[in-house]
Predict the structure.
Amino acid sequence: MTDRKSIIRNIVEEPWQEFPAHFGGALSKALVAPATTGSRLMDYRISTYAPMAYVERHVHKVQEQVYHILDGEGLMEIDGKTRVVRKNDVIFIAPGSWHSITNSGLGQLTFIVVTTPVSDE
C-alpha cells in the first residue's frame, strides 16, 4: 500500500483499467484509492462504459456507494429492480444491496463512483 498523502492530480495521469467483473469496455480510472493515495476511507473513480458494457451483479457487505451519472444513459439494477439512469442522476447503494449497471444507450455512459470504506471483503 502507498503511504497516505495529499495530492493534486490530473485525470490523464491515471490509466484506464477494466476491473474484475467489468465487461465489454467498462473502463475506470481509480483516481483516489489505496494504491494511488493510500486512502483508507474512500475510493473515488471515474468510469466510462461503451454501449453494452456492464459490471456484473454484485453486493458489498459494508461498503456504501454513490454513483453520479455525468453523461449518457443506461440501466441500473438494485435489489432486482431496474431503472433507467441518465445525466445528473445520483444513486445511493446501501450495504447488502445487490446491484449492477449496464450501458444500454447509444453512446458512452460516464459516471463517478465513490465507495467507502474501501475494504469490505
